[in-house]
Design a protein that fits this description.
By secondary structure, this protein is α/β, with parallel strands linked by helices. It has two domains: about 50 residues, Arc Repressor Mutant, subunit A (Orthogonal Bundle), CATH 1.10.10; about 260 residues, D-Maltodextrin-Binding Protein, domain 2 (3-Layer(aba) Sandwich), CATH 3.40.190.290. The chain contains twelve helices and twelve strands. About 5% of the residues have low confidence.
Length: about 325
Amino acid sequence: MEKIYTTQEVADQLKIKKSTVYELIKRGELRANKVGKQIRISQDQLDEYLKVPNSSSSFQADEPLPGIMDIPLFTADSAIRQMDYLLNASGLIISSQESRVVELFRSQLSLRPDSLPILHSYMNDYNSLYSLYYEKTHMALTSFCTLREGQEIQQIQSLLPGKEIVILHICSLQAGFYIRKGNPKGIHTLKDLCRPDIRFINREKGNGYRIYMDSSLSAQSIEKTAIPGYQRECLSHMSSANAVASGAADAGIGDISHLAAYPQLDYVPLSSASMDLVFSKEALNHPAFQRIADTISSKEFKSGLLPFNGYEIGKTGNCTFVDH
């Protein structure tokens, strides 16, 4: 049986801090798997990391790379605080990977009377809706790629069967490939990823962009194994962009708004995407959720989205009711 390591065991072997192991995983340089709420690294994944030449010896980024800021730092007491929120109703839990929008939402909401404090639980889109379905969280902020209008509603509804829900539209955006400036590898379509000279970095299973990739490959009869690096995963848009900007990958998938932080990159658009806040229809009777709806519809919240390049706010605050 293959050897499996904890993050601390990997840190001990590499003689680095445990926090550095997490940073390597966030940047997509060290592949890892989630087992429940724990992160585990296989011997093959560790060997793969050790065999990859350090970027400083084979590639130099044109500009200093920003830190990965869209993955919240995990703390030991986060599970305790989440349980406290659920048991004592002292606040609301929102699950999402869209950290910047969650922080904007929390800051705007805190200025309103009758609002409750919000705890952010960092989960991908599938797990966010799964947790909402089982009432482990109160809201899910999701981002699904859409090839036609209203497709995100169907995707959300399919993961919440039998539930009466409210979907508040946050913004529309664009999904596509991060590539190096000038597109030196000539990457334009999904089929280009099958070339042996292309190293792809994917999003993790359950993320809306990964769901898009999986379904698009299936629709075009492209085998996942035909794409070098398809099983190599990262946990955020910035991790994907960082991997390409650092030379660790030739292409990664994410949203266009992060390009501003990476002058080394260009972008190949693939699909539009819809970011939406989802919660139960029954919750809308609570004053706190009425404040939430008011916040998202406010001019202040919409103005706060404008600095995120590519976010379209023409329909921000639009409400869709979905009955079971």
